Q: What sequence folds into this?
């Protein structure tokens, strides 16, 4: 399929052919969902920890006589039913990550790109570079392209653009090798340079 190529000043500078096998698929929500859950589970720290009965500091002395009190027969005050006692089967440090086949992850990235292309949220620009690191220049360029919440992907992030855009909320910049389903879907617009399109097509073929 054909797509217009714009400049940072929102002027049309040409056209580009997009591979239908990557940008023209019918988006499948089930595949996208699997990949997003996979990514979010993988990034969880898993450092949650609660003290169990054997870890709580306290005496193990029997709290009362075995008989005659009219109450339950308790061994010590570190049991989970007492205030300050250990938690029964509490959370332990662990990894939440699970495996997902590489073919599924590759297919999910293709469906994410196709989803952005299908709903008109994909913008192709000739290059993402600035002559100097000025935030005002980036804000003006984004205003012309109607970008307030966007992900910009290039083969390599331009140093001046990275410095100028790093304190603009709602805009992220990542290289082609870092392109992933979650970051693409969570932003309203996806901005690809011509070099990024070529890099993604070479990565996904």
A:
């Amino acid at each position: 399929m054909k797509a217009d190529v714009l400049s940072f000043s929102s002027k049309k500078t040409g056209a580009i052919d997009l591979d239908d096998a990557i940008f023209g698929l019918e988006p499948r929500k089930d595949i996208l969902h699997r990949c997003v859950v996979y990514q979010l589970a993988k990034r969880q720290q898993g450092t949650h920890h609660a003290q169990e009965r054997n870890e709580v500091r306290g005496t193990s002395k029997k709290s009362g006589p075995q008989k005659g009190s009219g109450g339950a027969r308790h061994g010590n005050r570190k049991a989970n039913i007492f205030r300050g006692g250990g938690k029964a089967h509490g959370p332990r440090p662990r990894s939440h990550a699970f495996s997902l086949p590489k073919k599924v992850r590759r297919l999910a990235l293709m469906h994410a790109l196709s989803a952005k292309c299908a709903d008109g949220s994909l913008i192709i620009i000739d290059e993402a570079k600035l002559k100097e690191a000025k935030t005002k220049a980036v804000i003006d360029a984004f205003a012309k392209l109607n970008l307030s919440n966007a992900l910009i992907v290039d083969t390599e992030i331009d140093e001046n653009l990275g410095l100028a855009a790093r304190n603009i909320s709602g805009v992220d910049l990542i290289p082609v090798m870092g392109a992933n389903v979650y970051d693409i879907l969570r932003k309203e617009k996806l901005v690809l340079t011509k070099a990024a399109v070529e890099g993604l097509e070479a990565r996904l073929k």
Observations:
- Strands lie at 2-6, 12-17, 122-125, 150-154, 171-175, 189-193.
- The chain has two domains: 2-45+96-204, 50-90.
